[in-house]
């Protein structure tokens, strides 16, 4: 096995002399591999130790992720993998590389008194400013004999502290990295919990009497990872197939783009058709339930929304019917049952998706619908993740022109709400559409009808 960085950005990251280096800013740039190579320069030092942090423990052990990649690399160099009580690798010299989570701000106090020569953060935007700055105090090297340093990888998040920290390296108008500044070293001190920057370390030392830290940011993307482009040609296609916001962040490294109206759904990205263009192979009605009637003081409450969507034989999708209504609890239940009967007659649809809100009340409500809709295939699914994350897979297909709307008097209302997402007043139809789409993509036993 040959373990070495690729020429270009990975080499630049691993050869930087800065105290702190952030690497990445897009997906596919080989960030994890580079981060795992970094400690290997010290594995013959018996006093060396390193911690590589992910925000949560499952992020360490996700298949093909940090631990699996390290396992292949480090055991080839003679390291033993220890998994209890903490996950770490012990090399023949005694050098140690630990992988741990840092989930909460208070978790940092588990490291009081620690002396860690090298600290690495995988996906730094997942960590808080407090976690980062506190661990700087643990970045010491009394016995290892090396200068302590920090390395971190990241993907764009315009609302994270990281975006502000590296703003000198980012074009604030376009959101893209200024390539000519990548790798250039600057200096900072932290005063009153705020970083103060300069190109001259002596200037900071003289003014604040604090030893400055040297820093640089090295932007990279999938286009810098020639091995990945050659070995997994589908990965680039997968990035290009994402919704606009995700594609701009993960493919193009845009640090300024945020979810906004028109970035997920646009009128001109779909076709309204008079007839279903291909055979239906799977069909589902998904509901977003509300039980709020319109009142003089609340003219625009959340609505109960039901979206009937079908998957076609050619792999595309069509929205066949949409229902919305401001109803009380009993009115909602009667509408769901009445429309279920109509769907069964008109489209042979027997599949109904009901969301389960958090808590015991949500569980009881969802399961009461199963009993109420006896004779139908009712799927209950707990609501997880943000509305944007739930909508992204559907939005990606919408943007690729793979969604049709069957012509109906509901078309305008439906399009107006989706195209206003996520800044619009309501998102009931977005939620129902996302759930219907996600259900249909998971169906395995397809049959033409």
Automatic annotation (TrEMBL):
Q: Does the keyword Glycoprotein apply?
A: no
Q: Per UniProt, which keywords does this protein have?
A: Viral release from host cell
What Pfam families has UniProt attached to this entry? Terminase_6C, Terminase_6N
Domain Terminase large subunit gp17-like C-terminal per the UniProt entry, residue ranges: 286-439
Question: Does this entry carry the keyword Phosphoprotein?
Answer: no
**The protein's name in its UniProt record:** Terminase large subunit gp17-like C-terminal domain-containing protein
